[in-house]
């Protein structure tokens, strides 16, 4: 850097003042004519900055959260409960993943593709620098997997503590709550049923009546996550149903890993629960039963037939057979034979005419021969199930079936394709064209062209999109049928029946805010408010410190300048008088 140089040297400081410079008295009188200019402050912006948290704030309860759920209705119910609690505590539940601060990923461990989607979502969240909380059966069953390292996990029985996990994750901590709910050493069904929730469909309430099961199927990974059977007491389930109807729900789904096993751990039974529930179902509302395995429904067939005849219970039952080969069923450890399955189906079809029986089949289980598979094909051809879930076998890590000799992938694909062809070879609803049916309208079709309703047998009926139909019983004439649906034209002179329930909650509105939860919420919000105020005070204090430092620095500069001017003035006076 070039050095500065001066051509003229000063003998003393008074040489700076020349004859042409203003005299001190002149400068004094000229100050009277100086008008200071006031710098205006943007008061609104200033106040907004003072009252708002800093942009990099980690105060919990103000972030946006995106929730993604895979899997069964039980998992969907858990997702609704977690969304409700988070929203009640002030978090905003968003449907825009890119706009969210945190992703809550609620996983399913039944099949490989579902876990692959889950893993890919974690990777995407990490690429977008999102905070992540994991839930559902995958992390519960295998929390030590490499791709889960360092991430927060909320266990399937700990969903009532989701707010704690989210708060700590937002602060940058990794939290894992994977324990079981117990009372005096006895395992409970899970989190309380009266927690707040946001229903995906405000007209449908999903109630988990128990968690876990009594089986030990060799292919099942869900058992590792949900554990053994643990049932909720009947009174708690009835109270939850009552609350749902008071919030405008017109359809209840009972769900669990095996509804047929309900109550065996608490000295009760599924029929005992159902008889209590039907007492509180309003006219025009409906109850749908979830999946039940054959072994535990066999002893209740008479009672179940009576219940399925009830006008407020759908004549529908989901009974997975998985295979029509006793050899394969034995390898699966399903604890029943094909004859047991047929006995259940035949009895219910006889006692409940028109009943819909849905079932599941696994293609390509280890050891399945062509003959085993053909027995399954014959079962489908015989019963022509209107609802059939066909699954290609996927070996799940840690299960006994994963260690068995596998059927070649190409064979599994071919069998899956062949069974699908058989299923699509018949139309289960053609004979219903021309019938007049009562249907309950609960949702909109995927293509947004129709409303979706269900008749007495939980068969899907598409009706015109008339807003007055939603949540109502409508009488329709069936004029068209497809593989999975019928189309109905509302009867012109028929009245639309409104169930004797309250007005439904708005979509996204939080339900189940009990007084106890409101008190907990108030305490939490006060804590958050104090934390927020403390952060704002800290922020204001920091700004004040900076301001004082700046003023001190400016004052020091002004003092130095003042002393220099005073020295100049003194030197000038001495020079004049000399």
Automatic annotation (TrEMBL):
UniProt domain TRAM: residue ranges: 430-492
Group of enzyme by EC: transferase
Entries under SMART domains matching the protein: Elp3
Pfam families referenced in this protein's UniProt entry, alphabetically: Radical_SAM, TRAM, UPF0004
Location(s) in or outside the cell: Endoplasmic reticulum membrane; Membrane
Cofactor: [4Fe-4S] cluster
Cofactor binding, per record: Binds 1 or 2 [4Fe-4S] cluster. One cluster is coordinated with 3 cysteines and an exchangeable S-adenosyl-L-methionine.
GO-annotated cellular components: endoplasmic reticulum membrane
Domain Radical SAM core, first and last residues per copy: 199-430
The protein's Enzyme Commission number: 2.8.4.5
Bilayer-crossing regions: 559-577
Molecular function GO labels: 4 iron, 4 sulfur cluster binding; metal ion binding; tRNA (N(6)-L-threonylcarbamoyladenosine(37)-C(2))-methylthiotransferase activity
Catalytic activity entry: N(6)-L-threonylcarbamoyladenosine(37) in tRNA + (sulfur carrier)-SH + AH2 + 2 S-adenosyl-L-methionine = 2-methylsulfanyl-N(6)-L-threonylcarbamoyladenosine(37) in tRNA + (sulfur carrier)-H + 5'-deoxyadenosine + L-methionine + A + S-adenosyl-L-homocysteine + 2 H(+)
Domain MTTase N-terminal intervals: 63-171
Keywords linked to the UniProt accession: 4Fe-4S, Endoplasmic reticulum, Iron, Iron-sulfur, Membrane, Metal-binding, S-adenosyl-L-methionine, Transferase, Transmembrane, Transmembrane helix, tRNA processing
Purpose: Catalyzes the methylthiolation of N6-threonylcarbamoyladenosine (t(6)A), leading to the formation of 2-methylthio-N6-threonylcarbamoyladenosine (ms(2)t(6)A) at position 37 in tRNAs that read codons beginning with adenine.
Record-stated family: Belongs to the methylthiotransferase family. CDKAL1 subfamily.
Protein known as: tRNA-t(6)A37 methylthiotransferase
Gene source species: Moschus moschiferus (Siberian musk deer)
Protein encoded by which gene: CDKAL1
